[in-house]
Amino acid sequence: MLLDRYPHLVDVGAWTSGIAVALIGAAGTVVQSRRRAGARDQIRSDIEIYESLPEASTVRADLLGRIDEQIRALISSERELTRDRSGVVLSCILIAAGGWTTYIATVAGGSWRWFLVGTLLLGVIGLFGFAESVQKVRRDDKGNKVKN
User: Are 136 and 127 in contact (CB under 8 A)?
Assistant: First the structure.
């Protein structure tokens, strides 16, 4: 067994449970960010409600003011330069996982070195993801880059 041969390696169960928790948390963040209804969808919904209200309704003016505020907030948020935080976290996890498994495969030697192909690829994907996500650019309400 690998741990008998290399006792300085940590217990597999200890570090895999930590990695599993981190990956589940990162996946939850990504899924939640994709699931949210966008600000544009909320504005469209409010406009439909506004149009369905009778002309004599007293709430109509308040709703129109809210729609104006939402549109102004959307415009100002699209002018800001931001980073993709979930992408940065996910890429850091990939880099760490690739680095750790590269270390394990290197120390173990023998046929374990075949893992270097996949682990180095994992680290490189993480580096590219980090370089892409850390850039400050204009983003929409879902975190996607806004094209000029």
Answer: no
Buried b (16+ CB within 10 A) or exposed e, 25-47: ebeeeeeeeeeeeebeebbeebe
Distance from C-alpha of 7 to C-alpha of 107, rounded to nearest angstrom: 11
Residue with tokens 């907030």: 73
The tens digit of pLDDT for each residue in 114-135 reads 888 888 888 889 999 888 888 8
Q: What's the pLDDT score for residue 18?
A: 67
Distance, in Å, from the CA atom of 141 to the CA atom of 89, rounded to the nearest integer, reads 19
Report pLDDT for 11. 57
The whole-chain average pLDDT of the chain stands at 78
Is 29 within 8 Å of 86 (Cβ atoms)?
A: yes
User: Cβ(135)–Cβ(33) under 8 Å?
Assistant: no
Q: Which residue has 């599993």 as its token pair?
A: 20
